[in-house]
Amino acid sequence: MEVEEGASGGGGGKIKVGVCVMEKKVFSSPMGQILDRLESFGEFEILHFGDKVILEDPIESWPICDCLIAFHSSGYPLEKAQAYAALRKPFLVNELDPQYLLHDRRKVYEHLEMYGIPVPRYACVNRKVPNEDLDCFVEEEDFVEVNGERFWKPFVEKPVNGDDHSIMIYYPSSAGGGMKELFRKIGNRSSEFHPEVRRVRREGSFIYEEFMPTGGTDVKVYTVGPEYAHAEARKSPVVDGVVMRNTDGKEVRYPVLLTPAEKQMARQLCIAFRQAVCGFDLLRSEGCSYVCDVNGWSFVKNSYKYYDDAACVLRKMCLDAKAPHLSSTLPPTLPWKVNKPVQPNNEGLTRHGSGQSEELRCVIAVIRHGDRTPKQKVKLKVTEEKLLNLMLKYNGGKPRAETKLKSAVQLQDLLDATRMLVPRTRSGRESDSDPEDLEHAEKLRQVKGVLEEGGHFSGIYRKVQLKPLKWDGEGEEERPVEALMILKYGGVLTHAGRKQAEELGRFFRYNMYPGEGTGLLRLHSTYRHDLKIYSSDEGRVQMSAAAFAKGLLDLEGQLTPILVSLVSKDSSMLDGLDTASIEMEAAKARLNEIVTCGKKMINEHGSSEELPWMTDGAGVPPNAHELLHELVKLTKNVTEQVRILARDENENLTEPYDIIPLYDQARALGKTNIDSDRIASGLPCGSEGFLLMFARWIKLARDLYNERKDRFDITQIPDVYDSCKYDMLHNSHLGLKGLDELFRVAQLLADGVIPNEYGINPQQKLKIGSKIARRLMGKILIDLRNTREEAMSVAELKEQQVTLSLSASKKQQDKNSPPKLFINRDELRRPSTGDKDEDEETKYRLDPKYANVKTPERHVRTRLYFTSESHIHSLMNVLRYCNLDESLQGEESLICQNALERLCKTKELDYMSYIVLRLFENTEVSLEDPKRFRIELTFSRGADLSPLEENNDDKAESLVREHTLPIMGPERLQEVGSCLTLETLEKMVRPFAMPPEDFPPASAPVGFSGYFSKSAAVLERLVKLFHNYKNSSSNGKC
Questions:
Q1: Would you give the distance in Å from CA 734 to the centre of its chain?
Q2: What are 67-100's pLDDT values in tens digits?
Q3: pTM of the entire predicted model
Q4: In sequence order, what are the residues at sequence separation of 6 or more whose Cβ sits closer than 8 angstroms to the Cβ of residue 747?
Q5: pLDDT per residue over 763-813, tens digit each?
Q6: Residue (of 495, 453, 460, 492) closest to 670 by Cα position
Q7: Are residues 182 and 240 in contact, defined by beta-carbon separation less than 8 angstroms?
Q8: What is the chain's percent helix, strand, coil content, to nearest 5?
Q9: Which of 275, 262, 272 is nearest to 230 (CA)?
Q10: I want to staple 371 with a disulfide (CB 3.0 to 4.6 A). Which of 375, 497, 609, 738 is the partner?
C-alpha cells in the first residue's frame, strides 16, 4: 500500500524512518529482523544514518526523517541526537531526554517510585571522594545501616552508575557468609562466589537494597509501546553463576505470562520513562513483583513471533503519529513468511502413574537432614568477673537478664575472656586441686576449644547463653555474682551429609518426575514447575536442603548462594517439640519402666502376636536391663581410650591450634570428600580435636549412669548410639577397641527407645504426632488442595475452549479481521477461592504463544520440607495410625497391612529418610469423580545401613570408605494397584491437621497493595491462548 501524497513528513510517498543508532546495534539480529519486517509492509523507507554520519557530520546534513529511532549506547553522542530532534522534530519512538536517567540507578529508582512502580527497599550511600567516611553509614557483621535504615544480610550492593554492572550480594554469617559478584556474562559464567569477602565496598557511591528471593529465576520484560509486553525467564545468576545455553550457544530463556499487575507495571514504566521500546528486570518474590533495573532500548533474541508482534506494533505507532487518517489495521496475511525454528525438545512422555491417562500434578516430600556431627552441650556455673561483665555488656547492663551470644563479635569477646581464664599448664597440679576446680577448668578448656574450632565464627553452629543465678547489692548497685553458661555446638552437616543430600536430589530428579532424567529440568526452566523448599531453623537442615536443591536442579558451586536463593526457613512448622512436651515426658517415663524393669503391657486393640506394633514399648529388647549394664561398661572403655589420646594431645601441644591444621567449616560445606590430610595425620575426621572428642565421651559416660544414685538415664541411649555410629563411620582409623561391640549394644537399645519416645503405643504415637506435625500436615493438605483446584480450573478452561472452537468453526470468519495482539487483562482472571494461603502460591506460567514446548499445559507443583527426626516420626505416625481416632472408627488404615509390618520392623528413620506424597490426575475420568485425583505414598528409611554390615555392593562399600552410607530406596505404603483418592486422604488426616483458616494470611510488602489483587487468583489461565497455540503448532511438536 502506497501512502497518499503529503502523508510523509518529507512530502514523499513513504514514511521515512530514521535509524540513528550505532552500527553495532543496527546490525544485531533482532534489530535487523524487525526493521526488515517493518519495511516489508511497503509503507516505510528505512534510513540508516551510520557511525560516520552520527559521529562526524553536523546535524544539519543528517538525513531528514518522519520517525526517529535513536537510543544511547557506548560512544553514542546523545546531545547531538537531541539537537537533531529539536531541529527536525520527527516522531520519536523513544524520547531522548529521559535516557539520561538510565545512567544513574538512583534516578531510575526515584522515577519508578514517582509513578508508583514497586521497587525493592533500598537506600543510597553517596560519596564525594573514594573511601570517604560517612556518619550516615554503619557496617556491622551482618548488616549495614544507612541513615538509620538497617539492611540485614543478604543484601544487594549496586554502583549508582547504571553502566557499571559489578553488583555484589553479601550473605549472612548464619549461612556461611561470603559475597557473590554478579557481572555481564563471560563465557558460561555470570557470577562468582567469594567466601572470604565479608566487608562492603567503599571506593564509590552505592545503592543498598533488600535481597529478594526469587526461587532461582529472573524475568526480563520487553515493552513495545505501553500496551505490549513480552516476558522471558532465565536462570538467575545469584544461584550458581552457570549460564544455561542451548546447542547453538545461546542463553536458554523461556517466555512466560505476565500477571495483570505486572502488565500494568510494564505500561506505567513505558510511560514514566517515555521509552516505547524498553527492557527491564522483574523480581518475583513471595507472591509480589518488583522492578530492579531499567535497561532502555532492548529487543528479545531468537523469537520470530516477537519480531512479528514488534514490527506490527511499531507500524501502528508510526502510522498513528504521521498518517492518522490511514488505517493501521493489519492485512489478513502478513507480508513476510518466516519458518518458525524448531528448538530441540527431549521431553519424554514417560508417566509415573498407573496408565497413559495419568499426569503427575504434585510432589510433596518431607525429608530428614543428612549425616551430622554429634550434638553437644556444655553447662558450667561461672563467677569470673570477665564473664559476668561480658554478660552485662550484651544484655544492656540488666543484672537479671540473660544474654545470648551468637555473632562473631560476641563470640570473639567470649573467646578472648576464656583464653585468659583457662590455665596454661596442668601437668603435676591435678593432685593438689579440688575436683570441682578441675572439672570447672576442664569445661572452660572445652569452651575455648569449641570457640577456636574452624578459625572463624558462625552463629548457626555455636551459640552461648548466660543466665544470672545470684546477685549482690540492691537497686542500681545490684550486680550478678554467678551465672550459668550453656554452650551448644555440634550437629553440623558433615561432608557425607552434604553428599547424601546432593545424591538424593539427583535421585528425585531422575525418578520422581515425567521424562527420562531431563524431564524435571525442562519443567523447571519453562515455568511449568512450581518449586518451594522449606527448612527448619537448624543449620544442618538448611544446608541439607541447599545440597538437595543443588542435585535436584543440577546446579554448581557452593551452598551458601543456593541456600539464600532457594530455601525458606519456617521454624514454626518444622522445628520444636514444645507442643507435645507433656505427652512425651509421660511416654519417656513409661518407657523407662519398660527398659529398666522389663514391664510390658498388651494393648487392648490386639495381641502382640497378631499385631506386634500395638504393644506398649514395641521394639524394646526383652533383655534391655542387662544390655544397659553392658552399655555402661563399654562406654567407659571407649571413653578411657579417648582420654589417653586427649592427654597426649594436651601434653605435647601448648597451643594445639598452632600446629594442627585449622578446619575451616565454611569451606568444608563446599566439599563432598573426606579431609584426607587430617585422616593421614591420625586426627579425628572433621573439625573435632581429641580434647573435644574426649569431652563428648566423658559427658556421655557421666550422664548415662549415676554411680552414686545407681540410676540409669535412658534418654542418653540415643546420644550414645549417635556418637558411637559417628565414630564408627568417620573415625574408624583411630582404632578404638570395643567400639564395634558398643555399637551393637547401643543399636539394639536405640532401636527400641527412639521410636517409643514419640509414643509408647499407637494411640499415644498418634496424639504426640498430631501435635508435633499439626502445622506441617495442614500445609500439606493446602498444597494438595491448591494443586487440585488449579488442575480442575485448567481442565475446565480447556473444555470451554474446545466448545468455543467447535462453535466458531461452524461460522464463516471475517477474512479482514486482524490478528489480536492485545488481550484485555480482565480476560485472564479467575474468581478467587478466598483461601488465605492462596497469595503464597505461585501464579506464573509458561506463555504457549512463544514457547516451542510439547505440553505447555503440564504443570507440576513441588513442595519440599526439610526437618529433623522428630517430624519424620510424627508425620509417619499420623499417616499409619490416623484410623484409630474415635472419629474414624471403622475406617481402614491409609497404610496397607504389609507396609505396617515393614514399618514395625523399621527401627530407625535415619539420615535423609523421607516420606513422599505424589498426586496424580486421571484425565480420562470426569471432574466430579473422586478417582480423578489419586495419592501415592512412599517412604525411605534413609541411610539405614550399619557400618558393621558386610555389603557385596561395590558402590555401598565405596561409600563406606568415603564415610558415606547409601540411602535406601523408596518403599510403597500401599498395595500395588490400589487407589487412595485425595478425598479419602483429606478425610483421614484432616482431624490432625491445622485448619487453613488458622494459617496467617500472606502479607503484601509495603507500597505494593495497589498492584496486587486477590482477583488475579492462583495463576493466569491459558484463556484463548491454548487454542491459538495448538493451531500454530499443528505442524510441529505437540
A1: 38
A2: 999 999 989 999 999 999 999 999 999 999 999 9
A3: 0.77
A4: 721, 725, 946
A5: 999 999 999 999 999 999 999 999 999 889 888 887 777 777 666 655 544
A6: 495
A7: no
A8: 40, 20, 40
A9: 262
A10: 497
